Amino acid sequence: MAVTTTVDSPAATTSTTRLARRRGTFGPDKLWALAFATPYVAVFVAFVIYPIGYGLWLGSDPASYRALFSDPVYPITVANTLIYLLFGVNLKLLLALLLSGFFMRKGWWTKALLLVFMLPWAIPALPSYLSINWMLNGQWGLINNFIWLVAQVDGPPWLDTPGLAFASVIYGHIWKWLPFWTLIFLAGRMAVSRELYEAADVDGASAVQKFMHVALPLMAGMYLVCTMLSTIWALGDFNAVRFISGGGPALSTHVLAPLGIRNAFDLGDPKLGIAPVLT
Fold first, then answer.
1. CA-CA distance, 114 to 103, in Å (whole number)?
2. Residue (of 67, 73, 84, 69) closest to 250 by Cα position
3. Which of 73, 100, 162, 205 could form a disulfide with 252 if both were Cys (CB 3.0 to 4.6 A apart)?
4. What number of H helices and E strands is found in the chain?
5. Distance (Å, whole) CA 9 – CA 158
6. Which residues contact 178 (CB under 8 A, 6 or more apart)?
C-alpha cells in the first residue's frame, strides 16, 4: 500500500495563518460587538470627551485668568466656596450618619417617617429651591408672614443680608440632599452583622459605645468615600445659589460654579466663565 505524504510549503502556511487571523478579527461575533459598542462610544465622545476638551481649550487663555483674578467678586466667591464645602458637606453627612441610626429602629411608624423624610430628595431641585426662595422673601414670604402673625414684628431680611442669604443657600443644599445620604448610611448600617451588636450587648455596651466601637469603625471607609463624592457634587452645584439667593445681594453669595455660569452667559464671555471652574 502506497503512503502519500503532503508537505505544506512555508508560503501556504503563512497565508493560511493570515486568513485565520482575518477571520478572527472580522468574525461575526466581533462585528456584532463592534456594532453594539459604536453608538455608546460615539455618545461618550460627543457628550464627555468633546465637552471636556472644549472646556480645556476655552480655559487655556491666560487673559481670562488675569481678568478673573482682578474681579473683586472672585476672592469672595473662593471664600464662599470653602465655607459652602465646610458646612454643606460635613454638617450634612454628620446629620445623615446620626439620622441613619434613628431610622434603624423597628416599627411601621419608623418606615412611614422615613418615607416622608425622603420627599425633599424625591422632589425636583428647581421647585424645591424656588419654594425656599418664596418662603424667605422679606416682604410677602411665608416665614416673615408667620412671624408677623405670631409676634407682630417684622421678620429679618433673609435674602437681602449677605450672611443670612448664604446661610439660606447652605440650608437649602443640606435640606435637599440630607435624605439621600441618610439612606446611603442606613444601607451601610444594615450591612453590619447583628452578631457584633449582640456581642456588644453581652459585654454591657451602651448605644453610644456600640456606635463608637462597632458601627463607626466599620463605616469609616464608606464615610470617606461619601465625603469625597459629596464634595465633588457640591462643587458643581449650581441650582442652590441660582434659585435661592440668585448670587445676591450684590454678588456676595456666589460659589465657583454659579460664578462661571454668570460670567459665561450673563456677561457673554465663555472663556471667562470656564476660568472659575478650572481654578
1. 7
2. 73
3. 162
4. 16, 0
5. 90
6. 92, 95, 96, 99, 120, 121
Measured CA angle at 177 (ends 172, 183), to 5 deg? 150
pTM of the model: 0.82
Q: Which residues of 103-135 are buried (b: 16+ CB within 10 A; e: fewer)?
A: beeeeeeeeeebeebeebbeeebeebbeebbee
Here the cell at position 102 is 434613628
The grid coordinates of residue 124 equal 425636583
Distance, CA of 275 to chain centre: 21
Rounded Cα gap, residues 22 and 213, in angstroms: 61
Are 182 and 174 in contact by the 8 Å Cβ rule? The answer is no
The pLDDT tens digits along the chain (279 residues) read 444 444 455 555 555 555 555 555 556 778 888 888 899 999 999 999 999 999 899 888 888 899 999 999 999 999 999 999 999 999 999 999 999 989 988 888 988 999 999 999 999 999 999 999 999 988 888 999 999 899 888 888 999 999 999 999 999 999 999 999 999 999 998 888 888 888 888 888 888 888 888 888 889 999 999 999 999 999 988 899 999 999 989 899 999 999 999 998 888 888 898 898 888
Residue 269 and residue 272: Cα distance in Å, rounded? 5
Cβ(171)–Cβ(159) below 8 Å: no
